[in-house]
């Protein structure tokens, strides 16, 4: 048997002795949120008794808020230049933050280990007051991590039911239903989907809603190809769908960039978008109205989403929790020319 | 006469006593750049003699690099969601920074006073190791500010000749000449310009190069309207130019977003872009190839620009100054369908 190691005192030990959460211990030292004076005293007594203290350099700067929001992204930085969500969302966040003299610190990480280290370092060094958590994953480890760090955060997307963090997201299921139902009403029986990244919740969700809508009508769901949210992926996926034995007469794309790329493939295949193949996208990018035909799309106001996220963070930091905890923004379907008319007219 | 106030000791006093620059004093305390040990000793002696010391909390954290690059922007945050430069440039910067575990902190400021305060605070609090300086203005106060703070920076754009800072920028004058010369060779005699924001150097430069090219041929430069780099501005500007007594037969837009908006105005006026009115833009946005006709454009690789800026910053921080100091990236003109053919064929 190896000799017993002396265990390092952790924030958990202090929390247990003081009878509070780890978050409360953290907050009692960083001064970012108000706790009753008696609680702070009890926590600091417990910390002293156990010989625990937060990192000194960190505490020196943490006395004052950092006036900075942290945004850690586990995705390819190149997506920044492609995904319309990011700049519009950031514009909304910044519109609110800059009015309040807050900055945003962005870090791209390669994996979960780097991600966790970044969260821990930023909190330990007092570099940020709160986090924006986006691109939700299954069994997302960031919620436990935030609880552990006692960090403030806003979630972009719909978190699991047992996560009690303020969250903002668009509800678009109704719009996807509207797209499919409209095509079914116009006589389409083979309705395809070019899906996003299957590793991301919103990529899978859009596919699932599309598939359920078809199943309600007993229509096949096999005209499905993965585009991964990228132009190159959409070109491949569209070619695969349209050169198959039974090509779809309508395609719902999980984002507008893929829809635009898909419409170019159609023109290369001598097919007219909106006439030979009905097309709808997702996002509502401004340039959709400059395409020929104009791109039908499920429009989400990402600037509004970002602004709301910024307001929630500032309120949380000021000790005013969000009510309701989950804030849903409605998307809306814009049936522009690419959505097409009746199949009878089309074929 | 008011009583003489005792003047506070400043970094300038320490620099003068030690016979070094303010930047050297700053660097001797933050440890971010190596100085000869004897110089550091001389500076610290001078500081002690005068009773000067850098902010304690700042120094505590400044002992270690912040591994963060600062990006202060004096522009409307909403432009983030419109201007293709920003997300692509940021993607390039992040591609390099994330590989080196660096973050980027972004702050939008309303005016020069806020801007200067942000630079000073970030340096004093050790929040950033270096700055990205973009959107150059006339008599830009940021160069003196950086000298004062002893800060490391990379300039995006062409700084005045007396500024010795590493700089990266695209050279596009030749491309603008190529656009205008090509139209003149095709028989156009009224060539218009929808310019960007006259307050920004690159907005004025594109107009000036366009005007000089016309003047070389003795052609008029009055078909000029300000679009301000925005869609709404371009719609107004295009309408004004095309409904004038002598409308231009070709229009060079200072960016692609304005060109796309302009082409939609043309279609509303029953004019065919590329046939009735030749069109060229600037930026090389990916969606340009999805427009009908495809948008001719002066293509700049902003991802490459950002990556280069990131590399320069990391090299500077590692004590390896950039050589050459100014790094020019060539833009290239892509003469796609909207550029049109001969005027004879057009009219």
Automatic annotation (TrEMBL), chains A, B:
Top-level taxonomic group: Bacteria
Keywords: DNA-binding, Transcription, Transcription regulation
Pfam families with a match to the protein in the record: LacI (PF00356), Peripla_BP_3 (PF13377)
Domain spans labelled HTH lacI-type: 9-63
InterPro entries assigned: HTH_LacI, LacI/GalR-like_sensor, Lambda_DNA-bd_dom_sf, Peripla_BP_I
Descriptive protein name: LacI family transcriptional regulator
Organismal lineage: Bacteria, Bacillati, Actinomycetota, Actinomycetes, Micrococcales
